[in-house]
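During the reporting period, we have paired protein sequences with backbone structure tokens. One record among many follows, to show the layout:
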Amino acid sequence: MLAIPSMLITAGVTILAVIFYIVTAIRVGTMRERHNIAAPAVTGHPEFERAYRVQMNTLEAMPVFLPALWIAAYYFTRVPLLAPAIGLVWIVGRIVYMQAYMADPSRRSLGFTISALSQIALLLLAIAGLVMSWSSTTTT
């Protein structure tokens, strides 16, 4: 059985998150063109505005998600694949959020909740990992 190091999987999850963000950016560009909305305008057709908000909300979440993912993956070693697994859940949440928001913004709650809870879980794992690492360095 091939064991893949958790850091390698975490790197893969990071790449998937960046790819997802790029997809949202491309979608905004496509909507700009489809609805003839010239930059720097960020309002216009509702479909464009929804795509733009999905991209911006994802961008707003990434500065919390990425450091929490990497700190949790590095320091929380009791369950090595837990942090990248939660990172994948975050990506799934963002996809659910995007699909729901584009269809009907009032239905975005499930995807938002999945990704927000994933971020909180990663933050808690990161804190727990740091505390455990700190404890092990101060007791030896």
Summary: The chain has a mean pLDDT of 95. The radius of gyration is 18 Å. The longest helix spans residues 46-75. Residues 94 and 111 are 6 Å apart (CA to CA).
